[in-house]
Each structure stands twice: as C-alpha cells, then as structure tokens.
Recover the amino acids of this structure.
C-alpha cells in the first residue's frame, strides 16, 4: 500500500461563510486513498464546526465563544487568556508546531488570506499552497493589499477562486503568478435543493427579493435598502429578505426605522439553513460592490430563482447576462433599474428562470476536486 500524502489545512473558525463552506466541501471530497488530512482549527467556534467530516483528524487550539462561561466576568477573563495565548503562539510558531500540532506534513494549506502568515511561518519543510478569493481592486488599504499580494509570491502554489481575481492583480500591479491556477469553488446544488425543502417559509408581501451575505458595508445592503424605499415610493410593491449577520446589523436596523421599512426590509440574521428562505422568494438580488466567485449564485440558480447581481469579480464567469441571470453595475441607479425591470416586466425574470436548469450544468464539481487533487499531487512530487 502506498504512503498517503499528509495534508494540513489551517483555518481560524467555522462561522457561517463562503470560505467555510468551501473548506468543508474539500474536506469531504478530496480522495482518502491519496491524502491523510488534518484540520487545524484555531478557534473551535461557529455554526459549521459540526459539519466537519467525522473521518478528518481535527486539532482544535482554543475554546470557542459557544463553550465559554455565561458569566460576564469569567467570559471576559477567558477571552483575555485566549487572546494572550494566540498572540504568544503567533510570535512563536515553532512552539505551536512542537506543543500543539506535533506532526510533520507534506502539504500545508491556507484556504484564505487570514491564514497566509500562519502557513508561511511554519517551520516544516512542507509545500505550501494558498487559496485566494478576493478582488483586490475594492480594498482602499493599499498596504494591506500589497502585504497579501506579496505573501502570495512566497507560496509554492496559489489557487485563485476566479480568473478575475488573478487578472486584476496583473492589471493593477503588473504582478503575475506562474505557479498558480484558477479553480472554481464547488457548488453543492443537490444538497441545496434538499435543504430548501426542510421547512416552509411564508412571506407576508410578494414579490420577495431574497439576498444572502455577511452584513459588511461592501455588500451594499445600506444601498439596497435605499433602493427598496425608492421602489416602494414609486408604487412597486415588494419586500426584501436579507439572510446574514455581521457588523452592519445595528446600522441597518436603524436605517430601516428611519426609512419606515422595518416590515418590508427583513433582516433575518444568520441562518444555519438559509435555503428555504431563498426558495420561497420570487427573485434574488446580490448588490455587492466586490465579490470573487460567490457560491450563492450557483446555489440560487439551482433553486430556479431569477438573479439580479452586480457585475463584479468572477460573477460574469458564472452568469450569462439576460440568459441565466441579470447583471447590473454596482451603483445605486443601476441596481434600482434592474430591480424595477423585474418588478415591471415579469417576462424577463421568467425567461431567466426557464434557463437556470440548463445553466447549472456549468458547475461540474468532480472536475473541481480532480483539479485540486492534481495540484496537491504535483506539489508533493516536487517536495
């Protein structure tokens, strides 16, 4: 029997998010006859930690917030201790590997930029592979961008989540990555369809635009709410249901009160299973000013919900405009006009709905797993 390739994935925590779903999918589907996989989870925290495959070796480093004391003082002390421990081991990576990880690995994987420094500081003589999903053109912090761009140069191989993600670095900074490839994220359409039927969802006011994403300013939900109010004022009756939590929640709640749209702009927070909320909506809108290759687009197509999305990042690699989705610019007026078109002309979203079944053939998951496997094998052979 041949020796398996020892692979270490490192990730911070398992709060609901696109990268976390990608990590779980890879852990589930990379071939076990080739790879002996260990998952190092810095914080044992987040809704998706229960979804980590049971046959994967897991090293959890620090206790998650869910498992801390409910006593405010004790919890504060636990968080202080946790932060000090993390800081100590971040400054002493050799001790982390000696005391906590305790194994040698052939490949070390950074599934997102938050793990770049951790993997690059590893004392192991492993091949180091990074995933990068971020459109750098929308980050105003040039120092942060250049840090990430330069970190990528130090990896043995880089997997970009979309063609645009790699091309924009070349266009803006004239930096190329010869040791890289573009591999899209797998989209589990059959799983999504099954989960979408787990419970009924009823909305008070149709048509409903659903949307899903972290509540961050670059996701443009504050602009979407303004557009919602404008459409209502113009006589276009509808509601919007936003699934997701994040730092902008309180700002959006305040804005909803000020605009008097609390009953029609629904902030549903993070949902372990968001898909019934999407399936029972009429349309889907993604208003972000930056994305890479959002899984949500393929998942919504799989539920046959017509999509309006901003034409950013790798999204035009997923949507064929006016065929299986509708692309708009990320400014307020363009999103407004796209949504108004759906509300005023039912033939356009119906045509898109009719085409989504054919569109999901674009997402060939086995091809994706095979491409990742090929990268891992090639790097191991160079070790």
């Amino acid at each position: 029997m041949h020796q398996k390739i020892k692979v270490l994935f490192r990730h911070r925590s398992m709060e609901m998010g696109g990268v976390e779903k990608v990590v779980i999918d890879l852990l589930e589907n990379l071939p076990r006859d080739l790879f002996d996989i260990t998952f190092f989870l810095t914080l044992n925290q987040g809704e998706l930690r229960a979804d980590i495959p049971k046959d994967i070796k897991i090293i959890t480093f620090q206790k998650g917030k869910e498992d801390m004391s409910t006593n405010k003082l004790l919890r504060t002390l636990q968080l202080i201790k946790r932060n000090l421990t993390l800081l100590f081991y971040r400054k002493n990576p050799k001790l982390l590997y000696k005391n906590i990880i305790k194994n040698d690995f052939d490949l070390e994987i950074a599934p997102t930029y938050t793990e770049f420094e951790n993997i690059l500081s590893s004392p192991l003589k492993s091949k180091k592979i990074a995933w990068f999903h971020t459109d750098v053109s929308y980050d105003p912090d040039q120092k942060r961008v250049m840090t990430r761009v330069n970190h990528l140069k130090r990896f043995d191989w880089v997997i970009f989540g979309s063609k645009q993600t790699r091309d924009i670095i070349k266009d803006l900074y004239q930096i190329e990555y010869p040791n890289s490839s573009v591999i899209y994220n797998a989209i589990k359409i059959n799983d999504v369809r099954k989960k979408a039927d787990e419970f009924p969802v009823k909305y008070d006011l149709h048509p409903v635009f659903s949307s899903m994403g972290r509540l961050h300013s670059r996701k443009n939900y504050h602009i979407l709410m303004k557009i919602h109010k404008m459409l209502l004022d113009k006589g276009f009756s509808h509601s919007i249901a936003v699934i997701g939590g994040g730092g902008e929640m309180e700002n959006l709640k305040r804005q909803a009160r000020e605009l008097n749209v609390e009953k029609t702009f629904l902030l549903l927070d993070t949902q372990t299973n968001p898909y019934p909320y999407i399936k029972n909506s009429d349309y889907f809108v993604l208003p972000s000013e930056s994305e890479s290759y959002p899984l949500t687009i393929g998942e919504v197509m799989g539920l046959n919900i017509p999509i309006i999305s901003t034409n950013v990042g790798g999204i035009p690699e997923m949507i064929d405009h006016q065929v299986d989705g509708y692309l708009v610019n990320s400014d307020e007026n363009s999103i407004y006009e796209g949504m108004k078109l759906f509300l005023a002309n039912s033939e356009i979203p119906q045509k898109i709905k009719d085409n989504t079944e054919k569109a999901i053939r674009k997402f060939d998951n086995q091809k994706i797993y095979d491409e990742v496997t090929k990268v891992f094998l090639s790097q191991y052979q160079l070790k």
Observations:
- The CA atoms of residues 152 and 158 lie 7 Å apart.
- The first strand starts at residue 5 and ends at 11.
- The chain has two domains: 5-186+364-382, 189-362.
- The domain at 5-186+364-382 is CATH 3.40.50.2000 (Rossmann fold).
